[in-house]
Every structure is written in structure tokens, then in C-alpha cells.
């Protein structure tokens, strides 16, 4: 496999991380006003977790892509790209659109995509599949956290308006 092609997973993950970081606004007044569960980690924990998780996602795809060819490789690449779009998209739905309930639906789609990516990766290379387990676990935790925030703040869904919670 060409060297450039082997770098594509890292570039895709870096772009996903950058897109997510650009939309994340934990210091925003709307977000600070939201009622959050007591088990929410401190803000700095998210960067500490996502950095190695993103590294493992890139590592997994780096291992899988050379093991596949033809249609199987194209299907995996499409699943990986879709997963990265859903990953970056959650932040935009939650923080930028200020729609915690819509973000629950988005992160549920991400979790389904994660399960599919894990299945595909595990079938191609068990080490690559194992590398995705922290991603699946962390987004499972994020799904529970997003759901708890949406339930605690039924009026916070700003329907896309900049005003958000009242």
C-alpha cells in the first residue's frame, strides 16, 4: 500500500479532532447553565481521553486498510469516513446548534457506526479491533452523559436559536 494511503487515516482523524475542537465551547454561558450529572468529568478530562482515543482510531484504520482490497476496502473506507463525520458532527449538534436532544440521536447513530467499525476492524485484524474498544467505551459513556444532560434540561434545546437555555 502506498505511503500516502497509509497516512490517510491519521489525516482523517486529525481533521475530525480539529472539527470537533472548533465547535466545542465548554466555557459558553449556555453550556455552563445546563444542569449536568454529578458524574460528569471535569472539562480537562475530555482532552486527556480523546487524544489517545483518536490515536487508537487512526492506528486501527492504519492496520486494517492494507489487509483489505477491492470492494471490502472501499466498504471499510466508507464506514470509516462516515464514522469520522458522525464523530465530528456530534460536537456541532450539541455545542453549536445547542440541541442536546438532537445530539442524543446523533450520538446514537455514532454508536451504531462504532459497532459496525469495530466489527469490520476485528474481522480484518484483531489488534485493530481491540484498539477501537476504548473508543466504543468512551462514546458509550458520552452517550449516557449526553442523555442525562438532555433529560435534566428539557428546555435547553434551542431549536437552533442562539439563545439556548432560558
Characteristics:
166 residues; mainly alpha; 6 helices; elongated; disordered C terminus
Report on the biggest sheet: none
Global Rg:
17 Å
Question: What is the CA–CA distance across the termini?
Answer: 54 Å
Q: Number of folding domains?
A: 1
Unreliable stretches (pLDDT < 50, length at least 5) are 160-166
Q: What sequence of helices (H) and strands (E) makes up the elements?
A: HHHHHH
The percent of residues in helical segments reads over 70%
Give the averaged pLDDT, no decimals: 91
**What's the number of extended β-strand segments?**
0
Q: Describe the global form.
A: elongated
Which band does the percent of strand residues land in? under 5%
Label the structural class: mainly alpha
- Quickly count the helices: 6
Mind explaining what this structure looks like?
With 166 residues, the protein is an all-alpha fold. It has one domain (3-33, 42-152). Helix content is 77%, strand content 0%. The protein has six helices and no strands. Helix 3 (43-64) packs antiparallel against helix 6 and helix 4 (70-96) packs antiparallel against helix 5. The longest helix is centred in the middle third of the chain and has 27 residues, at 70-96.
Structure described in brief:
With 166 residues, the chain is an all-alpha fold. Helix content is 77%, strand content 0%.
Amino acid at each position: 500500500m502506498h505511503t500516502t494511503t497509509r497516512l490517510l487515516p491519521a489525516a482523517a482523524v486529525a481533521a475530525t479532532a480539529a472539527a470537533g475542537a472548533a465547535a466545542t465551547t465548554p466555557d459558553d454561558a449556555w453550556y455552563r447553565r445546563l444542569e449536568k450529572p454529578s458524574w460528569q468529568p471535569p472539562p480537562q478530562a475530555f482532552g486527556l481521553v480523546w487524544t489517545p482515543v483518536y490515536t487508537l482510531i487512526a492506528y486501527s484504520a492504519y492496520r486494517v486498510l492494507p489487509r483489505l482490497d477491492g470492494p471490502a476496502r472501499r466498504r471499510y473506507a466508507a464506514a470509516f469516513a462516515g464514522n469520522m463525520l458522525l464523530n465530528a458532527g456530534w460536537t456541532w449538534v450539541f455545542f453549536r446548534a445547542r440541541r442536546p436532544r438532537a445530539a442524543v440521536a446523533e450520538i446514537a447513530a455514532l454508536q451504531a457506526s462504532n459497532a459496525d467499525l469495530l466489527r469490520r476492524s476485528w474481522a480484518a485484524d484483531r489488534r485493530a479491533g481491540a484498539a477501537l474498544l476504548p473508543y466504543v467505551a468512551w462514546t458509550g459513556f458520552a452517550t449516557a452523559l449526553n442523555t442525562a444532560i438532555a433529560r435534566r434540561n428539557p428546555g435547553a434545546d434551542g431549536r437552533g436559536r442562539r439563545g439556548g437555555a432560558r
